[in-house]
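REQUEST ID: PR-0412
SUBMITTED BY: lab tech R.K.
PRIORITY: routine
TASK: structure prediction, single protein chain
INPUT:
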Amino acid sequence: MTRDEPRIEVKGGDIDAVLDMNASPQDVYAAISDPQQIMQWWGADNAYKPTNWRCDLRVGGRWRSEGVAPGGQTFFVEGEYLAIEPHRVLEYTWNVSWMPLPTTRVRWELTPIATGTRVRVKHTGFGANTDAARSHSEERSGGWAAVLIWLNRYLKR
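STATUS: complete
OUTPUT:
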């Protein structure tokens, strides 16, 4: 994995995405947990853009992102926070409006390394729906590969 390319593994219905970033765990955590920061980096004109992001950042609290795809279709993603360890772990459920999926889980793990932070995203629970897991992992579809690249670009500013 080069510095700007995430390592993505899809095994069955689980995604494991990793990228080393030249930013502190505190800065990464703020960027993935603060709705004002998330709105600045998550999405791209050729993929989708959030138009609203709100959260109640506490275990049991809810979050919701609403946005628009390039063709003008609106969407939402929402869930509930399951684990919060500032600067280390952020985990939540993931429910999408654009395809029928069971509730899945997203877990961000932030590990300090000599050059900054190793950012790992584990998205689990797709079960036998490996096509949905692959779709959620790919850069071209705005999946986790793209999300990590967008986050890394934001943190480099």
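NOTES: The chain has four helices and eight strands.
REVIEWED BY: pending
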